[in-house]
## 1
Amino acid sequence: MFIDPHAHMISRTTDDYEAMAAAGVVALIEPAFWVGQPRTFVGTYVDYLSALVGWERFRAGQFGIRHYCTIGLNSKEANNEALAEGVMEWLPRFAIKEGVVAIGEIGYDEQTPLEDRYFRAQLTLAKQLELPVMVHTPHRDKKRGTSRSMDVCEEMGLDPSWVVIDHNNEETVRETLDRGYWAGFSIYPSTKMGNARMVELLKQYGGERIIVDSACDWGISDCLGVPKTARLALQSGIAESVVHQVTYQNALTVYGKSGQLQEADWLDPPEIDQRTLFEGNSILRGGREPRVESAQPRRHRDLLIE
Amino acid sequence: MVVTTQALLRDWVTRQAGPERGWFESQLARLEAGASEQTLHLFLGLVPRRLGKADLQLSAEDLALAERCHPGWHPTNWSLDGAARIAGLLAFRGKRPFAAVFKDLVRTADARELIALYRGLALYPQPESLAFEVGEGLRSNMRAVFEAIAHGNPYPRDHFDIHRWNHMVLKALFIGSRLAPIVGLDARSNPELARILIDYAQERWAAGRAVTPELWRCVGPHADSAAAYAALERALGGSPAERLAATLALTSAGTDQARHLLAATPEMVSRVDAGQLGWDNLSSYEAA
């Protein structure tokens, strides 16, 4: 069983859902983010958040995957002040919806004053609502941006054990862990972090407070990032307990602090959910061992289109 | 004593609320006493966290009371949190018209909330003012949201025009949803719907696909005007469930031509006439 704690499913196809379910992903977390181009109306942002807590949650359930999300104003769109002000008014309502496990992904992109203002405002909101935080660390000027993100979290009085610093790399992980935060790693083909590099990091740091995610989105990315990394790690001799920590348990522990994510959601779902919103958890019910190899999308198996 | 739907919902929730009973009651009191919309939002968000998501446990007497209180209201398959959310909405005394509050709630609802919001439709003040949101709910791709409106809910029977009614029935067929739980299915059958359904059946047959036997229930009373006899004859020669459905439909048609066709299944006709077989028996025939 795997949890992918960072997956932008709104940009993905049903083949991906099928492949993830077949590979053993039982739950995923979809952080609110930038959809590839800026939203220019508050209303489009509101509808996006509404899709995360409604439609996408339902869609995932049809494939037997539990869908959770994080709610937030991302750093890029924080630079549109009129939009940002409007979105901030709506955030508290969405943050208490079912299945919202954190405020996120928030943080810095270009590290502008507006990004800083709304990052801080959302950290305050997370504290008020007693929700964990998912921090997106910048791609450019990464090392300094990551340190600064943690400085601000501490200034705002957040407990590092409630904060996931995501998109780490070899340069940032030491400080993130030393300061008591959870360190997320996004397994991204060719750019952020390949899974061979990830395995090396696991050899060095072990599994404590490390979280692997796919961060799959509208760009070239692999929705099987978590199961593939798990398999590569096991083949490379990483202990099973460590693999379990970084591909399942750690995400469950930190995002579970929201009270909105628990194992029973997929192991023992409420009857009414079974009838209405969550179907086909046959992987667990059948006791079948999930395998990456079996994750062949249906369209590659069958010639007939029915 | 007049029992209201609101009082029933309250009763059902409080008796199942366990230690959260006090919280629930005090929240309703606040909502009744003119609390802000923000308080309502918070209440709706907190309900599943406080009360959990168990099924709402109702006895046959409870369901009978529901029917007496609001004819056509069948709160089967409801959840505890859904019932509590609707009780809160009914208790709420807002400054804006209810439709404005409701529109806003639907706009930001999560999947589970949508189901609850739509299940309560018939019970809200000025239910006819919610027509636009109801249309959005019917168009939803979330089957459970569609069924929150279509099943066990008297709202469509009491407030839909003929066009919307017919398209609801047709959509139910398209998404593989059952027709039997639609309240007023027989009372609101009409020649236009029968015609649409015959077309639908022909289209399915042409594609080599089966037709759900439930469909004939809406066709039977209008078999003449919808020119349905050939199609009903075909169904009569189908599976046991199709034969039963066609028999029931032709019986409801009550025309000479229908009686002529029914001569092919005398045994089933006599059981229908004796009241031993009805639409309620269809699902057991389908399973067989």
Note: The interface with chain B takes residues 46-47, 49-50, 53-55, 57-58, 90, 93-94, 96-99, 259, 270-273, 275-277 of chain A (CB under 8 Å).
## 2
Amino acid sequence: MELTTRPVALITRARLQRGIAAQWREWGELAIQSLLFFAAMISVFTTIGIVIVLLVEALPFFQQVSLVEFLTDTQWTPLFAQKHFGIAPLLAGTLLTSAVALALAIPVGLLSAIYLSEYAPARVRAIIKPILEILAGIPTVVYGYFALLFVTPLLKRVIPNLETFNALSAGLTMGIMIIPLVSSLSEDALYAVPNSLREAAYALGATRLEVALRVAVPAALSGIVASFILAASRAIGETMIVAIAAGQRPILTLDPRRAIETMTAYIVQVSLGDTPHGTLEFRTIFAVGLVLFLFTLALNMIAIRIIQRYREVYR
Amino acid sequence: MELRKRRELIGRVFEGIALTATTIGLVALTLLLLDVARRGLGVLSWSFFVNYPSRFPEQAGIRSALLGTLWVISLTALFSVPLGIAAAIYLEEYAPRNRLTRLIELNINNLAGVPSIIYGLLGLELFVRGMRLERSILAGALTLSLLILPILITASREALRAVPMSLREAGFALGATRWQVVRHQVLPVAFPGILTGIILSLSRAIGETAPLITIGALTFIAFDPRGPLDKFTVLPIQIFNWVSRPQEGFHRLAAGAILVLLVVLLSMNAFAIYLRNRLQRRYQW
């Protein structure tokens, strides 16, 4: 937005007329602009703060525990007498619960998006969309309750040797939580596909399904993929559901029926305990936090890139 | 023609599958609400609201959690709302299109996707230890403020962007400065949208648990917080604490507290939608 340019002579004369008051006003304008700029810069400071905090605490950790041990040891027992610092079990726990969540949220979310954008009458859409938004607004601690006290007992009837704390119900509940994220972002992408493409396909004799799957979805693919990536990032960083329902046992397994521990749940476990600040044991949460941050950062950056690119296409 | 019919049939089947998938979220929401209501309605009584937490489920209540939530959210609003609106105004009304602006925007997009527990680690080092605020209400509110800023900024920007350019141009044409245009023309029109964004981001803060656990919010608080430097607990942490215990009595308390939390959140959301519908009708173009 540009101010209309006025002839310099006019501006000067106006200034003389208004004199000191105008001078003050200009200073005021500048002061306000600086304040607003400072407020906007807080986001940059926050990112810098996160990186510094994680590095300051994680670097001393990596001076005592080698990066090789951190990445290759298959045991994570920093709070025991016999200490091992291998991130692999926590990473496996995180990936396992996230995989279960995505296995539910991606197909269901995408099908919902296709239904809402390609099939649903306006009235149905007007009812279902707010309900999905409510689902997205429920606090994660409530989902944790649901996973532990509803989903797990229910699944135990079907899967007899399911442990009380397990990756499966935590993952499934997390999947339910993520459905709205996938469906609303995918629907936005489908919505952005110009109708002329669909009309062209109909004119060639395509059925509704063929239009949806062979025209609309491929055209919106980048946005849909971005929604999957954001869903993955969300699942990896999710804390309360896994802290409540998935357990606190860092074992290297891919069996979703067993109790595991995710990176986030480990940070909660240490935060609730009485491990003194400044010790190697306490610093583990920053090392784990750093890994978590890098994972989600990478996923978010990829998703942002993809979204920026597809927005250009249909402008 | 046979082929066409088969294709149509496959289409019908797919529509059925897609509709079923769409209802999964709805079914899950219903089951969740029913389960919480079944377990929790029984504990809702006057004493549940006025009692402190207790080792004995039948005497326990949410008094300190409710007060803590009220304190933390009020302070969070106090910090985050002016900052969020100011940042949004800068980015929409002032920022030149240059590299720094793009960096700020990228940062905001990115921060919105950082797991909340990472904000907890930041709050722990920066506010609890760095600024020596200890495990206080103030430290919690500052942490949550940073957490919801990206959401608040994005929502406020959308509200500002919806204000037609002609309004600003009219102001400039009359010789108003940029700030005068923002203050007297743009903000009043964008206000309902901004308010909706504020309410939605605060409702996100009310439900947050993980960052507050990380900064060390206590779970057993048997006193009323008196000031911003007091220790505290909040509803979600109290729920987490009760869910984590094995006894059914505490699970019922957790369900009761969830009912209270959901009622608060749903009424905030309903209020936001009401505001949006009501206030937006005043200006029409």
Note: The CA atoms of residues 113 and 184 of chain A lie 7 Å apart.
